[in-house]
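user: can you give me the structure for this one chain? tokens are fine.
assistant: on it. calling the predictor now.
[tool input]
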Amino acid sequence: MGSSKFETTDIIGARSSRGKTCSLAATIAIAVVVGAVVAVTVGLAVGLGKKDKSTGEIDLPNNETVTTGSDVTTLAPPTGDEVLLPKALRATHYDVRLRPMFADNEDVRTFNFNGDVTIQFTVNEETDKIVVHTKLLTIPVDKISVTQDGQKIEVLDGSYDQRLEFYTIRLGTKLTPGRSLRVYVEFSGPLRNDLVGIYYSSYTDAEATRYIVTSHMQPTDARKVFPCMDEPALKATFNVTIERKKELMTLSNTEIYDSATLPDDWVADHYGTPPEMSTYLLAFIVAPFKCLENETAQGQKVWVCARPNAIAQAEYAASIAARIQDFYVGFYNISYPLTRTVHVAVPDFSAGAMENWGCIIYRETALLYDPTMSTAVNKQRVAVVIAHELAHMWFGNLVTPAWWDDIWLNEGFASYMEYEGVNSVEESWKMREQFLPEDLHLVFRTDSLTTSHPIYQAVSHPDEINELFDSISYSKGASVIRMMYFFLGYDIFTAGITEYLNQYKYKSAHHLDLFRILSETSEAHGLSVNVTSVMLTWILEMGYPVVHMSYDNTTGVVSMNQSRFLLINPASNQDGQSPNMNYLWEIPYTIATNGVDVDSLTTNFFSGRTGQRNLPAGAQWIVGNAFERYYYRVNYDESMWTALIGQLLADHTAFPDENRAQLIDDAFSLARAGVVSHVIALNVSRYLSEEVEYVPWTAASSSFGYIRRMLGQTSAIEPLQTYMKGQVGKAYNNVTWNETDDDLHLTKRLRVLAIELACAYGTKACLDEASLKFELLMDPTSPPDAVGVNVRGAAYCYGISNGNIREWNQAFDKYKTSNLATEQIMILQALACTNQAYLLAEYLQLTQNETLIRRQDFATVIVAISRNRNGQQLAWDFMRLNWDLIYQRFALFSLTNIVAGVTENFSTQTRLDELEAFISVNENKLGSAARAAKQAVESTKANIAWRQTNEKSVYDWIQEHV
């Protein structure tokens, strides 16, 4: 599935609005009353296995053991009695027929679908019950027939368990093990715009509303489409028939082998049988779409499909999808098993994309790109999501995790491989460098909370499964897989992955299977790394370490010790939790010095509390974790920080871009947690006046963004703005607002960032230029290239911020008429930049009108408004007042992003009390946002503590340096 980290920014797409326009003259007053404050949060405390205190060994589910130096806190895997289907039967093949009933000129409330399925089972145990998954389906008992070896079996009744989503067919005769079983079921269900299962979506073409039907099954919504055994390990083969009106087309996982004419202008498209796969990977689309075609080096067809009035925007995707697929064939050394891959952009989609085998479905912003209107960020987003989803064709589809607790194997691997995939077609983009700000530094923040969770986390209920589609599974999963890549090396890593995929192809597997094979491959190549021992410390233990390094330049000895890094000092933790500070990780490390070529460094390991490494004596400085390849922070003693700062000020290019970004991110994060003083972190930032590279500036933007949010309502904000205007000045003046055709990709990205920083911190020239560019954007007589595509976001935002209702309405009108999803999302975010609270209030009200703002874009709007100083209270009140509706409408990523985004800036006791009251009132209605709510509480406490401890010292330092 498409990466969650973009969900409230780039990944959220929008489409042309339909229906009535709105006036923005009214002022909306929003008020809410929330119940009394009640303490909440329940720790997850059940162990995966019990650790023998004397040996330090963990008893693993398959009787393997691994030695660690820590206690492991996770949940036991679910048992079959709790959530899994009975083992008496196993589905081996499905014949599925679907007929979605919808039309452009009909009332959407009448939309529905019907169909039938014939399931072939193997009978493993004697039973008189057939149990499958269903959800929201109507199944007439008299339309169920069961035969075993051709003999009809009496059906007594059918019953539904809503909690487990089980449908049980009770039989009059017990089934005999070892004999074939066929079950035929007719069913029907509603077609909604709920973005799960199969659902309807729409777009505007020539001012007419056109409807389509599309699907999203992951993780547990195939059961909403047809009765099935909806568990990832229960793979089967499928023959799919989709019935449609003759003017439409259909798409599914394979190619159509026959289309049969039916009465009343209907057509039945019959699809070929794909390899064995999980139910969640099925895809169903009925739409009047157009497609572009390309071909891989192996001769497989690659289609990119979209609505007809946007198909021209699919050309970039069509140009790279086949090449990325070819790269993966070489990387995995395994041929792609299907004859065709379809990439489809749909107007409404809850995630970024979904890796249905052979038929990948995308949100439009993740697949469509217009070179005259879309930004470098948009282009990168398209390439990244295509690479992510294609990586799944092998890792996730060919071999599938046995249960959702291992979803990190799917999403973490694809989230790492997306960088390799894009690098294969866009080498100048420096994707491997961009991993740091895009994934590593982002997940470091979440994983420094006691309310984080281990990568491998037991789940049962669908809400718990949905919670795992978070930054820990995606970005931390990617980070630890990247770590394996580097400590094993390319040859061992790729050979081990190929062996794993070959051993388990068309089957399901467990992370221990992967680690075992990588360990064996390592030994066969003479490296002998026990991957299981190393990696279990990273996936079973939540959080990550900070490695403290001190260097004796007389002896050359580097002394190291590790401890868990937490944003809140455990001694100040007031919520009754007991974060485990005794965790020990097996840590790969490299140490660079001013006298050593960083490209020649070798990796070593230490697993105890302390360790040592001998280096040449006399080095001026050391840097641990060269290129920040491994998943931990590094701290130094004060004298070494002073030496590093001195080198940055003298010649910052002595450090690679990645390590400059690392020094910034580590210093400010360590200061935020109270491990070092903010004087050290702020002194690191002094060199930024000479920094002109994108990756370090992204780290700096994030670090100072936090300080800016904390000081936003204090007298310190003005000197902070003065200081940052000076620091960003060189980068801003180097790139300016004027784009050229020769600009490198990261120059374009730096331009966007530098302009945003210069304007955000009040640079008058930047703000004036933004207003001028906005007027050009709004002037219908301006040439199309009057404003460069990469600076339009800043022009929209600060043009609206500097203006009033006229500018807001101009931008909103442009949003409604745009045919480009990426432009629409840019404007949606910019509309939240207004300084007029009454406009923000009415903007929030517009989110309830899905003819104007699509359901998938709600999170974008409310989070953007909450990040506006004038909109924080409005967004928070709106969320609380409308939580029942929000809870009903959103699932998977959106609920988590809404809660996390709206509460991001909370830093007062009043806000904390309100947040805890909100959680108490809605403790049974948080769904997949339950963990995000707990994390919001902890983050708010951390923000309060930061302000109490650091506000004055940061203010004093800034005053001295402006």
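assistant: here you go. The first helix runs from residue 315 to 332. Residues 86-288 form a domain with the Immunoglobulin-like fold (CATH 2.60.40.1730).
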